[in-house]
Amino acid sequence: MIDGNHSMIIFFLNDFSIETTMDEQVEMEKPEQLSSSSRKKELLSICLPQKRYYRQRAHSNPIADHFFDDYPIIPDDVDWSSFYPIYSNENKNSEFNNPQVEFLDIGCGYGGLLIELSPLFPRSLMLGIEIRQKVSDYVVERIRALRIQNPGQFNNINCIRSNAMKYLPNFFRKSQLSKIFFLFPDPHFKKQKHKWRIISQQLLSEYAYFLRIDGYAYFATDVKELFDWMFKHFMEHPLFIEIKDDDPIIEKFSLTEEGKKVKRNGGQIWYAKFKRIADPCTEND
């Protein structure tokens, strides 16, 4: 029979033994835990972002005075090498000197088109412009993760948050772009909001300024009324003509997030391609 004093001594010894064993176990597992922790951090760093953490309204008023920081005053202020790691400081003397964005995806959404086109045109820099903060954050994180998962790939694409209806002159020079995309833009159904649409005669003149001669503008939508609107404005503009050809880029429209959703819902995608032509009055050869 064990009295109270002996019981306390045994409890103390058992407790000491347990603590000692645990301390030894922790010491033994520290390197493994550290490596495991490093592995977890590495895995987290390359994990693709999940859309549910970047929820945002589908529409944004482009006329509103959104707060945009860090936009350049003039295009010369833009350091494109900071957007594209292939043009980092150590590569300044490479064949890829003086980088300039050539493809522009206006209203890029979740970045599907950029990701599809990146391997097709590895030597062309592409930029997506998205007005919604959380969506643009998602695209940036998605591209960052893809670069880590696929070393040497997706270095020619990036995304910024900005308003293409206001700030394109701050980023791009005359005739800098070779391709502009308008995929599944906000239809702004109400008549009083048609002025918010991304395609208008005034905006087309601005896009033509940045698009080089023989460059191309593409648009696609699942809203027939909006397609007719955009097609009409392009057809009426003197610096654009319709082009019908077997362009492999058009096949990628259905692989974007919006394109997949349209297909899932049994919808139809209307699209068109227009070529930038010279102004006979001011751009003669």
UniProtKB/TrEMBL annotation:
S-adenosyl-L-methionine binds at G107, E130, I131, N163, A164, L183, T256, E257, E258. Catalyzes the formation of N(7)-methylguanine at position 46 (m7G46) in tRNA. Keywords: Methyltransferase, Nucleus, RNA-binding, S-adenosyl-L-methionine, Transferase, tRNA processing, tRNA-binding. GO terms for cellular component: nucleus; tRNA methyltransferase complex. Its EC number is 2.1.1.33. It comes from Dermatophagoides pteronyssinus. This is tRNA (guanine-N(7)-)-methyltransferase. It is an enzyme of class 2 (transferase). The gene is LOC113794108. Gene3D superfamilies: Vaccinia Virus protein VP39 (3.40.50.150). InterPro entries: SAM-dependent_MTases_sf, Trm8_euk, tRNA_(Gua-N-7)_MeTrfase_Trmb.
